[in-house]
């Protein structure tokens, strides 16, 4: 099974802590080009370096900002590969899936399903309140966004999934030897990583329910399906379609999307609805398609010694 692939006698939890530090360091190294660009622009334009992250993100043309920010995720992904291979003596496949190879059909199905839902939900919101949106389309910048986004955003989302639903999920399983603790911890950490997003400043900490809930949803899908393929597809669709469809002045990225949202954000039904309605429906769809069974054991069960797979 998926979690058991990372459980080895020599895979002490301190290795995961050390590996996490290595991955974070790789990410910081990947941020050097962006930092250098900020210092260079500040020097050449004779302006002060912005004191807040939101202002820094607006210093450059949106496509350039997207490129510079995403470099750090490529470095982090390289860090994951290095740590898994040389510190844990595992393959990247072992933190991807319990199957013999990556199931790309699962990734594409999840990507397509959530892309369709994202598009339809945007249409609903748009036709309900069209005054909140303006047409933001510019052909050349949008085409550049499509190319950059299609390459870089999946790298970003895949990096996050490999860290939380792959590497750390197995790491906490090594520590606790059960399934509920890795599910809970990775969800909390994943949600907490979004605490500095500008959406939190705008809407308040109540939006953390959405972020932690999304982490919980992705963790449930991973454990029930014995792999992160469905999580990979969902996460890529969520970020890519969002970047292409609509942007706003208060979102993490300002992109050359088709529309711009002029409304003031508020934490209301759109925060709770995905957690209590939409995600359960998605889980139901996945469970029917992939014949999930034995829910209690897969989500909360103990990892017994005889279940441990040494590779």
Automatic annotation (TrEMBL):
Pfam families: Rce1-like. The chain crosses the membrane at residues 12-34, 64-86, 107-127, 139-159, 180-197, 203-223, 230-247, 267-286. InterPro entries: Rce1/LyrA-like_dom (IPR003675). Residues 142-241 form the CAAX prenyl protease 2/Lysostaphin resistance protein A-like domain. It comes from the Bacteria. The keyword Transmembrane helix applies. GO terms for molecular function: endopeptidase activity. Keywords: Membrane, Transmembrane, Transmembrane helix. One of its GO terms (biological process) is CAAX-box protein maturation. This is Abortive phage infection protein.
